[in-house]
């Protein structure tokens, strides 16, 4: 297991949103286990949608971090050139 920190992948100011999305994803997964136990498959699409929304939020926040990191690296490079 690597020593990655959550702040390696998300901005510090977005951590609350990250945890909310993780909680939403986890909650949907737990509902899925309960529904599977009770063979309530008609709720499957709603749960999948809930998980996809949470996952999309995490992807968006990760992409935001990557864009800002790239912009900061470019700015540092430009400063060293002049």
Account of the 3D structure:
The protein has helices spanning about 15-35, 45-80. The chain is mainly alpha-helical. It is elongated, with a radius of gyration of 18 Å. Helices cover about 75% and strands about 0% of the residues. The mean pLDDT is about 95. The longest helix has about 40 residues, at about 45-80. It has two helices and no strands. Helix 1 (about 15-35) packs antiparallel against helix 2.
Task: Indicate the topology.
Layout lengths: L14 H23 L6 H38 L1
Order of helices and strands: HH
Radius of gyration: 18 Å
Beta strand %: under 5%
Based on Cα principal axes, name the global outline: elongated
The helical percent reads over 70%
Largest pleated sheet: none
Query: How many individual helices?
Result: 2
Structural class: mainly alpha
Q: Give the number of DSSP strands.
A: 0
* Spans where pLDDT lies below 50 across 5 or more residues: none
From the structure provided, what is the oligomeric state, counting identical versus distinct chains?
single chain
Task: Kindly report the average pLDDT value.
Answer: 93
Termini separation comes to 41 Å
Name its key features.
single chain; 82 residues; mainly alpha; 0% strand; elongated
Give the gist of this structure.
74% of the residues lie in helices and 0% in strands. The protein has 82 residues and is mostly helical.
